[in-house]
Design goal:
The chain is built from 11 helices and 7 strands. The protein is of the alpha+beta class and 311 residues long. It folds into 2 domains: 232 residues, 2-Layer Sandwich (Beta-Lactamase); 61 residues, Orthogonal Bundle (Arc Repressor Mutant, subunit A), CATH 1.10.10. Helix 8 packs across helix 10. This is HTH luxR-type domain-containing protein. InterPro entries: Sig_transdc_resp-reg_C-effctor, TF_LuxR_autoind-bd_dom, TF_LuxR_autoind-bd_dom_sf, Tscrpt_reg_LuxR_C, WH-like_DNA-bd_sf. GO terms for molecular function: DNA binding.
């Protein structure tokens, strides 16, 4: 995987990566008789992709199918969000325009991409074109309308407007002028997989219902294939994998307790608590206690309260 570091000092660069054909071909072989994560055998294009021996065969299979559905490219991302903040993004770029994934992460377009904001919240497809993909990430509920999201608000700062312009210009240069995006659920409470289909057609109004249906079938098939073939796209965040002390510390963090209070409650040392907190932050890709408390609420089902202690 290629890593693309962000400029913020509290951002783990390993959380933003591009995963490609080379990584996929170097992964361990998976038997076609293996069950998919949901207990069902791979079927349809997922089975065909798994049967393909290499990247060339996968492209020969999927690209004509993609074009027959009326699209030129697709982008597949596994996104982890804490609230409205994306703290991890793994991008599978095999069927994206050349260089697009790297630029998307390098310039942090995911922070203002209305397709991500919408598809992380809704199961319905989002039809989009260049007038609707960029939005101000600071606007509450950005990208949550059905169909196409609202265009960038006119109240944006000059810097935000310039950034939105860079996104739409980059998309135009890559030939990504309109399309449809889908959000696909995962067993992970914090993760969503996003599949964006792109076309050189200038208007989303020309996208027929049949094309949307074909795109969804392709999205699900690719998602199932990658879930079975590329475990590095995933991460383990299930509460059953936590030790008793990790779980206890995670629950006490949601109560706003500091390290000293947690140590006293559990009858252990301050240094042990600090060690386990660092483990938990690494496991959940959290950068501070507030994020860790949010994660506890999602993963453990614990009530999330204000965390006054510093990270």
């Amino acid at each position: 995987m290629s890593q693309y570091g962000m400029s913020d000092t509290d951002t783990d660069v390993s959380n933003f990566q591009v995963f490609g054909d080379v990584d996929l071909d170097s992964a361990a072989e998976v038997s076609l008789d293996s069950d998919a994560p949901d207990g069902q055998r791979l079927a349809g294009i997922a089975h065909d992709l798994a049967k393909a021996g290499n990247a060339q065969e996968r492209h020969a299979l999927l690209r004509p199918t993609l074009r027959a559905a009326g699209f030129d490219s697709l982008c597949y991302m596994r996104v982890s969000r804490i609230g409205d903040t994306i703290n991890r993004l793994i991008y599978f770029n095999a069927f994206s325009p050349a260089g697009w994934a790297q630029r998307y992460l390098r310039e942090r377009f995911y922070e203002i991409d209305a397709r991500l904001a919408y598809s992380c919240r809704h199961e319905w497809p989002m039809l989009w074109d260049l007038s609707s993909i960029a939005t101000n990430a600071s606007q509450p509920g950005a990208g949550t309308s059905s169909g196409a999201s609202a265009a960038a608000p006119s109240t944006q700062s000059p810097a935000a407007t310039a950034r939105a312009t860079r996104l739409t210009t980059a998309a135009r240069e890559a030939g990504m002028l309109s399309g449809v995006s889908f959000g696909l659920g995962t067993p992970d409470a914090l993760d969503t997989c996003i599949v964006m289909f792109s076309s050189s057609q200038t208007s989303k109004a020309r996208l027929p219902d049949m094309a949307i249906g074909h795109a969804y079938a392709l999205a699900v098939g690719l998602h199932e294939f990658l879930t079975s073939r590329a475990p590095r796209l995933q991460r383990a965040t299930y509460c059953t994998e936590l030790s008793d002390i990790q779980r206890s510390i995670l629950e006490l963090v949601t109560l706003g307790m500091n390290d000293k209070d947690i140590a006293e409650r559990l009858g252990t040392s301050h240094h042990n608590v600090d060690y386990y907190l660092r483990q938990l932050k690494k496991l959940y890709h959290a950068t501070n206690r507030v994020q860790l408390a949010y994660i506890a609420g999602r993963v453990l089902g614990a009530p999330v309260t204000s965390c006054g202690a510093n990270s």
